[in-house]
Every structure is written in structure tokens, then in C-alpha cells.
Amino acid sequence: MTQNNSLQVVNPTTGESIEEVKTTTREELDSVVEKARRAFEEWRGFAGLDRAGIFHDISRNLLEHQDELAETMTLEGGKPYIENSDEVEWVAACFDYYGEIARDSIGYLPAPIEPQQLALVIKEPIGTVACIVPWNDPLLLAARHASYFPHLRHSAPHTLLAQGSWNCAEGGLQWQLMHGDFREHLLRAPQPDLIFFDPFSPKVDAILWTPELFAALGAHCAGRSAELYTYSNATAVRSALLSAGFWVSSGVGTGP
After folding, report:
1. What is the three-class DSSP state of 228?
2. Which 8-state DSSP code applies to residue 111?
3. Contact at 8 Å (CB) between 226 and 235?
4. Taking the chain, what is the end-to-end CA distance rounded to the nearest angstrom?
5. Which of these, 170, 245, 232, 157, lies nearest to 202 by C-alpha position?
6. Of 7, 59, 165, 252, which is least packed with CB atoms within 10 Å of its CB?
7. d(CA 51, CA 123)
8. Dihedral sign, CA of 135, 138, 144, 150?
């Protein structure tokens, strides 16, 4: 919440204020953007090796403050501490990765279409960028407070959270919110056509990523051509699915 030109950062678990942050005026924001533009003119002239060194320094600094950052993120966001600790590692890995790209990736020569042609692609910094980034569960936030998000036209998430179930007006689709142990609900649920398998990571909810759990899923879907989608393409997850009798296709993982 904001008051007296300041933003109160609230612990979602206790409702207590854990920090007070000064809000930014339009003039201050314009000043920051102008400074960023001036810095860009210097940054674009940095050699790849210098950029790589700076990125690796940022990565090391993040890891040195990993516990402190994870604790702060847990207090202000509510995610489990281990998830936030992992996130700091992922961010550090990103800086290391792009640091190495900055070292030697400045462009390339694509194959020409005609013998007399020379095609050259040069990668350069594009300038100052402003990003508005939501926290980890923006859709859940919008669903719980749909009246604050008039642009969110679909009524299903809000209805599901408010009433526990949702039926498509055109028929043929029903959502039901079920609280409790997924493994117990699995045995009582009707056979599905499609499963979106999205628990926390194997590191946090290891019991939901075992060959035994996937075998139970496979047995429950026996005789039906059901599809299972998950965000992880980790070797351990694919091996567990294969051992449970699933056919595993290739894809692009978006998680660990």
C-alpha cells in the first residue's frame, strides 16, 4: 500500500510491514532514465572481455548474498525459502551465461544467397529499456481480485477460487478445485484426457516426482489415450516417466 509518498512492503503471511520504500516521482524517474542513457553511451563501447568481467562480478555478488536475498524474497513474496534460494542461483547463472556470450558473441556471417553477396549480423546494445515485471503469481493475484483487473475477461479462475468449481457456458468443460493430498484425490478422480502436472520442483516436492507416483498416474489412465504435460525436461523426470510406461516426447523445459 502507498501513503505519504512511500510504499509499505507487507509480509503476506503476517500482514506486518517489513519495509518502507520511498515512491518515485515523475521527475526522479526521468532523471534515472537520463542517467541510464548517458551510461549506455559508455557501456556500448566496452570490449566483450570487460563486459564478461562485470557480469561475472554480479554473479559472484549475488551468490555471496544468497541467504540474505532468499530471506528477503520469502518475507515479501511468501514463496518457500528453498525456492527463493534456488532463484538466486538461477539469476547468478544467467549473468555467468550471458557474461560468456558477451565475451565472444558480437555477430556472425550468415550464408549468402548469391555468390557476390556478403551478409553480416552485428549484435549491439539497444539502449535503455523499462520493464514492468509482475511477481511470481500474477494470474493468481488477478484471479483472487478480479474486480481490480477488468482486462481479465475469463471468469473461470475467479469463479474457481470463489466457489470451488466452474462450468463452461457452452458445456463440455468443468473445473473443480480440490484441497488435500494429490495422491489421494488421484485414486478417486475420473480418468482424465489431459493432465497438467505442475507441482513445485522435484527439489521441494520430491514425493510427487517419483517413478511410483507416475506409475500410479499411468495405471489410473490405463486404457485411455491421455496426455501429460509438465514444465520440467530434467533427465530424472523423463526417466521416471519412461519407467512408469509413458511415451516421452521432446520439448523445451521452462523449469528445473
Report:
1. strand
2. P
3. no
4. 34
5. 232
6. 252
7. 14
8. positive
- Whole-number Å distance between alpha carbons of 48 and 44: 10
- Rounded Cα distance between 123 and 104, Å, is 11
pLDDT-based confidence at residue 224 (cuts at 50, 70, 90): confident
Per-residue cell: 23 = 515512491
pLDDT digits (tens, 9 = 90+) for 71-117: 988 888 778 888 888 888 888 888 898 888 877 767 777 787 777 88
Of the candidates 125, 68, 46, 57, the one whose C-alpha atom is nearest the C-alpha of residue 96 is: 57
202 vs 36, 77, 82, 116, 170, CA distance in Å?
A: 40, 21, 12, 54, 37
Own/partner pairs for 3-7, CB < 8 Å, 24+ apart? none
Query: Quick check: pTM over 0.90?
Result: no
Which amino acid, one-letter code, is at 33? Answer: V
- Beta carbons of 241 and 208 less than 8 angstroms apart: no
